[in-house]
Amino acid sequence: MLTSAGFGDVKLMNDNYSHISDVLHVPGLSTNLLSVNSIVNKDTIVLFTKDCCKLYDSDEFQVRGKVLAKAYPENGIYCLNTKVNMTQSANTATKDKINTKKKNHKCEKSCINTVKNEQVASTQQVDEQLLWHRRLGHLNRVSMRLLKKGLASGIDFQEQEDQSKKCVPCLEGKMTKKPFLQSKNKRSKRILDLLHLDLVGPFEVPSYGNAKYFLTIVDDHSRKVFIRFLKQKGDTYEAFKEFIKMIETETGLTIKTVRSDNGGEFCGKLFNEMLKQKGIKREFSVPYNPQQNGTAERANRSILEKTRCMLYDSGCNKRYWAEAAQTAVYLLNRSPHKKLKNQLPEEIWTGKKIDLSHIKIFGCPAYAHVPSQKRQKLDAVSKKYIFMGYSEESKAYRLSDPRNPSQIIVARDVEFLEEEITNKKESEKGFQLKDILPMSLNFYLDSHNEAMIPHEQNHEEEQVQNEGNEVPLEPDGLQQLQGNLEERRYPLRNRKQKEFPDFVTYSAMHKDEESEPVTYKEALSSSDKNKWKEAIKKELEAFQTNEAWTIVDRPSNKPIVKSKWVFKIKRDAEGNVACHRACLV
Ligand SMILES: [Zn+2]
User: Which residues form the Integrase catalytic domain (predicted)?
Assistant: First the structure.
């Protein structure tokens, strides 16, 4: 049992990785230990490979390739939710003593670290903060606090003391984060003065309505986002034409300018003529000018990220992506926006205060009342549906009948079973986040020329604000991938100190005494040189006894394969040195 003397910050003699905060000082420990779980909580990504372990800045890290397995942190331990294949273990048991133990060890969940975690089984409580985080499409913590403090009505939750909870969809999304720099463009003065347009797709799977693309329209003044789903790129013209008609009727105003990239869908003859006829000015974002179409691109990114999080969290079929994206837009329009000095886009658009009391978790089961005139005598009074979002027109809910998913019904009298989502364990979710919209974020970014991606501050980041003199944020896991950026505004050392897990699962080893030499020379100059010499002698003797070789003349026409010494320290079950082994390979 080792006791610590306190916390502190440590400076490292390393250009890129020069500072670690909240380091535990343990005088009794002979070697410095670095907990992977602690450093990943400080915006660092750790990658283990056969040859080395690399640390990356999470902003710059990108993952490609297939994920084979995932282990999620639970109180500092990464748990692989899988069962041990008993038959296989039994087969190999005779070869390996460790496997014999495994055979008898009936564990439902095999942990990468073998320390038992008594804290995991905690009582189930409704976490209102997490509930609202989910309802609001995994909104970051600062924006949630702003809404609760009066930016909107109908939202309330207790901020949790315990910040150790992690939201898996949010943590997952963080992997694909790319930095956006601050936008310097001035906001236009009036609604419909300027609209930003962009097209996203094609999606790998069509939605239930057979859409493969979506068109994003952002009003520059209010930052209100509109979304239209398209079966093909060529539908852009029709969709935008209808949008103009609808929006001009609704507002009584006319669109002045439209800005887009010069994608074919925005440059066709019909599209150009329609704008000309309406007297709408065109603006194109110039390729390689990163500042220009940033507003639409940031909105796309926020939509896609929210969509992914909500689909994953609900476990809904991924063909519901269009419904999820529509709900993402609804929620974005009701979240604080930094460019609006934290007002809500919908509030600017309507001039009315926003109420959030009707917001529910996307994808949760919902029972809708069936009106008596539509009911046969023995039919149930209510029917089970999946909650898909909100009807903007009639202040009602959009529900999907799982028996007929392409049909959406709109209902007012609905009862929600949100706890079916909140009580669901990660392991019960049938797919991985990357599977949901495999082409979404990465595809979207890749499909555009990298240089054209606006290196502006991202949309969600725009939605939060530095809260002045307030207590700095703790890493709480409730922050969305983008929202997580806000943490870095505060110096790490000023953050509230995070509790360290009360176990260390690394074997402390004194390097000078017990490390394994890499070369023959190193072995013979180490403090254990006599033990290594003995081991080398044993290996050579074994070759002789087994008559492993015969000495021949060196052939002149054949390449010579070199040999190498490999040195290993064998340990017993308690970790004590059992013997030194040298192998010539
Ligand atoms: Zn989340």
Answer: 175-353
